[in-house]
Each structure stands twice: as structure tokens, then as C-alpha cells.
């Protein structure tokens, strides 16, 4: 009896979420094909003149794809259908294309380029902020004020603001990520850019909180000490089950990307406690409305 031919299952519409999302999907399919074939990462790495680490990077979507490697892996995994192979190679080529943020690469450190790609590829984004409104929820004027006081202000501030607002388009994209933000009440009272800018920013938060894809909670003063101890962080979860959640911690000159199980579990527990400790979304909207009216 002949073995069942290997089939490739990648939704081509994932390309609409950007090359990082597509690279993750292609990498996940490579992993599924390898596991279905009963082949170890070491064997697969040897087959493409590489290593276990190279296969791991390919399967996690953390590196670009060489056509020769893809062809050799499809051979190894028994994918023989010509149409399927062509489709998969086409997707791999698209995954290698630069993202929309590439035109801002002169402004972006490599560590933040990585985040922008992952942000667009995420299924859910959960973030806690203790000082500023998250970038995905900032108005143009608020973002301008943030850029002006930052170390980055000396180099093309207008394009930096443009980049911040361009990122927000993922919230309206088909199959875009769900955003769940917990904001310390301090964020509402820190007058970034002055009274008018702060009021308009809070009014924007009220408007955004009505979107089905956005949840906003306020961690009020009456909640007491927070589980996060005032440390901002963001958690990204992906639709591809083979990919671990990623915790993103931004610092002044670099960022940390945590994906070890113990680290991710710890931050997930903290985020869950913050969501319980914070006001409900409905009550948070009332707090936002009152804060805007008081300015």
C-alpha cells in the first residue's frame, strides 16, 4: 500500500498580515511536515547542510528561507505534488520580502524591527503600561509629544510619529490581533503634551474601547500595589500552536524577548492578576470619561 501523499496546509491569506506572519506560518508548516515524517531536527539539519539550530530558526520563522533549503526539505518530507511544491515556494519567497516598516529602517534599531513584525503577526496582544499610553493607542499629537521628549527626537521626528501611527492599522486589519491593555491610572493624569493633548488622548481611549478588537482596563489607585510592580511589558500570542508566547520588555537602548516556558508562565500569571485587580472594562470606560471631563 502506498503511503498517503504529504499535503501542505498554509492559508495564503496570512500574507495579508505581513511577511513576519507568513514566515511564521511557513516555518510552522515545515515543522508539521517534519514531525509527520518522523524525522528529527538533527537529521533535517544535516540534510540541508545545517544544524539543529538552523532547523529551529526556520521552523520558528525567525530567519529567511533559501529556496534550495526549502526544496531539499520538501524532498526529505515526501512532498511530491508539483502544484503544492510551487505554492509553498511562492509563499516562502513572499515571506522573504521586506515588511512595510522597511522604509523606516534608518530610524529603527534591529531589536524594534523584530517587535513590529511580531506585533503584526500576533493573534492577541496583552500589554501593561504604567507611565504612557501604549503606542497602538496613541493619538498623533500624543505620539508627537512622546517623541519630542525621547532620546530619538533628534532624528526625523515627523517620520517617527508616522511610524507609530502606521503600526495602529493592524487593529483594523482583517484577522488582525486583539489588543487587551491594562493602564495604570497614572497614565490618565500624566499630562503628556499639555492639557488639550492629554484630554484628546483619553477621549481617543474611550472611542477605542468600543471596538470589538480592543479591551482597555484601568488599574485604579484604589487597587493598591500592582502585581507587575510598575514594570511595563507586552505578551504576544500567535495563532500557530507550535509557537510559544513571547514576552517583550523594552528598555532604553535594547529590548528583551522572553519565550522560555518558566518566564512566559510567570508573566502570564502576572497579567492575569492585573486583569482581575484592574477595574472592569465597563467601569474603566467610565473612569476614562470622567478623567477627560476633568481636564
Order of H and E elements: HHHHHHEHHEHHEEEEHH
Distance between the termini: 76 Å
CATH class placement of the largest domain: Alpha Beta
| Biggest sheet overview | 6 strands, mixed
Which architecture of the largest domain does the CATH hierarchy give at level 2?
A: 2-Layer Sandwich
Strand order of the largest sheet: 3-2-1-4-5-6
Oligomer: single chain
Number of strands: 6
Kindly report the average pLDDT value: 91
Strand content: 5-15%
Alpha-beta classification: alpha/beta
Report low-confidence residues grouped into runs of 5 or more. none
Q: What is the gyration radius calculated from CA atoms?
A: 22 Å
Shape from CA axes?
A: elongated
Please tell me about this protein's structure.
The protein has two domains: 12-95, lambda repressor-like DNA-binding domains (434 Repressor (Amino-terminal Domain), Orthogonal Bundle), CATH 1.10.260; 102-293, Endonuclease, Chain A (2-Layer Sandwich). A six-stranded mixed beta sheet has the order 3-2-1-4-5-6, sandwiched between helices. It is elongated, with a radius of gyration of 22 Å. The mean pLDDT is 91. The protein has helices spanning 19-36, 41-47, 52-59, 67-76, 82-95, 110-121, 140-149, 157-167, 186-189, 195-208, 261-277, 281-293, and strands at 124-129, 178-184, 214-219, 233-237, 246-250, 255-258. 47% of the residues lie in helices and 11% in strands. The chain is of the alpha/beta class and 295 residues long. The longest helix has 18 residues, at 19-36. The protein contains twelve helices and six strands.
Amino acid at each position: 500500500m502506498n503511503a498517503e501523499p504529504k499535503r501542505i496546509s498554509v492559508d495564503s491569506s496570512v500574507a495579508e498580515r505581513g511577511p513576519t506572519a507568513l514566515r511564521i506560518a511557513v516555518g510552522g508548516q515545515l515543522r508539521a511536515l517534519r514531525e509527520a515524517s518522523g524525522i528529527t531536527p538533527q537529521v533535517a539539519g544535516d540534510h540541508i547542510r545545517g544544524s539543529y539550530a538552523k532547523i529551529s530558526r526556520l521552523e520558528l520563522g525567525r530567519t529567511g528561507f533559501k529556496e534550495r533549503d526549502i526544496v531539499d526539505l520538501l524532498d526529505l518530507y515526501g512532498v511530491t505534488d508539483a502544484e503544492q511544491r510551487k505554492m509553498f515556494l511562492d509563499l516562502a519567497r513572499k515571506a522573504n520580502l521586506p515588511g512595510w516598516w522597511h522604509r523606516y529602517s534608518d530610524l529603527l534599531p534591529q531589536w524594534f524591527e523584530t517587535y513590529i513584525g511580531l506585533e503584526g503577526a500576533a493573534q492577541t496582544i496583552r500589554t501593561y503600561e504604567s507611565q504612557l499610553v501604549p503606542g497602538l493607542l496613541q493619538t498623533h499629537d500624543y505620539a508627537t509629544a512622546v517623541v519630542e521628549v525621547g532620546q530619538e527626537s533628534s532624528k526625523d521626528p515627523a517620520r517617527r510619529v508616522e511610524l507609530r501611527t502606521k503600526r495602529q492599522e493592524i487593529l483594523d486589519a482583517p484577522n488582525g490581533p486583539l489588543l487587551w491593555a491594562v493602564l495604570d491610572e497614572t497614565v490618565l493624569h500624566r499630562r503628556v503634551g499639555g492639557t488639550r493633548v492629554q484630554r484628546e488622548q483619553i477621549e481617543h481611549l474611550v472611542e477605542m474601547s468600543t471596538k470589538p478588537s480592543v479591551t482597555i482596563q484601568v488599574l485604579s489607585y484604589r487597587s493598591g500595589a500592582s502585581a507587575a510592580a510598575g514594570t511595563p511589558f507586552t505578551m504576544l500570542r500567535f495563532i500557530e500552536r507550535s509557537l510559544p508566547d513571547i514576552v517583550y520588555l523594552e528598555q532604553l537602548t535594547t529590548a528583551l524577548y522572553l519565550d522560555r516556558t518558566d518566564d512566559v508562565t510567570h508573566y502570564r500569571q502576572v497579567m492575569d492578576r492585573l486583569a482581575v485587580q484592574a477595574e472592569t472594562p465597563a467601569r474603566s470606560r467610565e473612569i476614562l470619561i470622567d478623567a477627560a471631563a476633568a481636564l
